[in-house]
Structure formats: C-alpha cells, structure tokens
Amino acid sequence: MGGYNSPLRKRAGRALSGALALIVVLLVVQIWLLMASVESWLAGHHEVALPAAIISAVLFAISVGLLALIRRTEQSGRDPRS
Amino acid sequence: MSEFEPNDTGGKRNPPTGEELWREEFPVASSEQGFVERRQFGRFLVLTSGAMVAGQLWLLGKNWLSEVETTAYPRKAVALASEIPVGGTKIFQYPGPSDNCLLVHVEPSKFVAYSQKCTHLACAVIYAAEKKRLECPCHEGYFSIDDGHVTQGPPPRPLPRIELEVEDGQIFAYGVSVFGKDA
After folding, report:
1. Touching check for A36 and chain B: CB below 8 Å?
2. Rounded to whole angstroms, how far apart are CA atoms B12 and A55?
3. Which residues from B are below 8 Å from A4, CB to CB?
4. B86 close to A (CB below 8 A)
5. A8, B22, B51, B108: least surrounded by Cβ within 10 Å?
6. pTM of the predicted protein model
7. Using CA atoms, how far apart are residues A65 and A67, in angstroms rounded to an integer?
8. ipTM of the modeled complex
9. Cα–Cα distance for residue pair B119/B9, rounded to 1 Å
10. B102 three-state secondary structure
C-alpha cells in the first residue's frame, strides 16, 4: 500500500491533472468553434464549415492522444518497477 | 457477514481488526480512486470532444446538401437598363404573374434581382440604398444585396435570386436560384 503515496504516483497524478486541464481547454475551443461556425453558416458564410471541421477534428485527435497519454501514465504510476 | 467467528473457537479466523473491516468496505485507496475518477472524466471530455466534431461534420454535410439550385424559366425582358438609376429599383413579376421580384441597380454596371417575398413571413422586402441591403420592414430581417443571404433577423434562409443578363441595354430574367432544398 505504500506505493500509493510514492513520489512516482504523485508525479503521475500531477501529469494526469495537467493533461486533463489541457483537454478541457481544447474542448472549450471546440465548443467555441462550433458555435462560431454555426453562427457564420446561418449568416450565409458557408465557406467556414470545412476549415472549422478540420480544426475541430485535429483538436479531437489531440484530445484522444492526451487520453492515451493519461492511460499510459496511469499504468506507469501503478507499476512501481517502471 | 457471519464469516468471522469468535477468536476462542480454535482453528478459525481471528475477528478482523477495525482497519481490516475498513479495507473490506473500501478496497480502493483514495489516491487510486482519484486516478479512476480522472480517467472517467477524461473519457467523458474526449467523448464530448467527439460530439463537437460530429456537430461540425453535420454542418459540413448540411453545407454540401444545401448548395444553390438554379431552375431555368422562360427568358423574359424585365426592364431597360437605362430606365433605372444607380440605387434605383423596379418591381417585376417572374416567373409567374404573382411572383413579385425586385430589380436593383446596385452599381453602374451591376444589376441584381431577388424575390420580393421575405423568407420569414412573405412580407415585401425593400431596398435600402444607403446601407446597400434588402430590408423586411415587418420583422427587421436584413438580406445582403450581393447574394441575398440573411445578415440579421428572423428569416430562415436567403432570398431566391433571379438570374439576369443584360443584352443591348435590355435586362432579361432567365432563371431562379434557391439556396438549399431544406435549409
């Protein structure tokens, strides 16, 4: 049970919090992007739909990458030998 | 709950201490629980992020499905170019006798025409020359004079555009362009 409070796990916990905070920021950007592109589209600026979709997909890919990083970090934090 | 027997029964398990009981009730350490909660929260965030991408793709699909459709109608002379001053307008009927349209002389060599029916509640739109836009006086819906798209107000879609051509000083209408089938 001493492994739960090891410095390695504490570092892993901090890394997880950081990654989650970054995902939250990316999500906020995506929400704003969707809102802005819908507003522009309704105003007749249809050219914004494609770049907005690409940027949103890129942000999603980064979020998925961060989630994978979280899982890796979590596993390394759980295994005291790593 | 009766698996722990008294200590004096010989050969049986000792009764659990307070800490052991606590561990049985809460087998996950609080720090570990934090990891699980953060992982689940991360999954939720990424799922929401995927929903945002789905929203963007929906918009993109709607964009592709709602392209401008031009319907050709019999060519009809609607006005002489010289009879409308720059900034002036003329009402004509096209393609049917009850379809009022507004012809606008925007710039010296630029004429545009739109259906005069507002796409909100079919009020007649008017041209505001000083602001270069079409205005619906009923509910303050504004349309761009360049392509008829909605710039403000309740109209749900752009004004149908009348396709024009100028030949020997005569303006002819030859079709109607509508933005989207269900936009």
Report:
1. no
2. 66
3. 29, 31-32
4. no
5. B108
6. 0.54
7. 5
8. 0.84
9. 89
10. strand
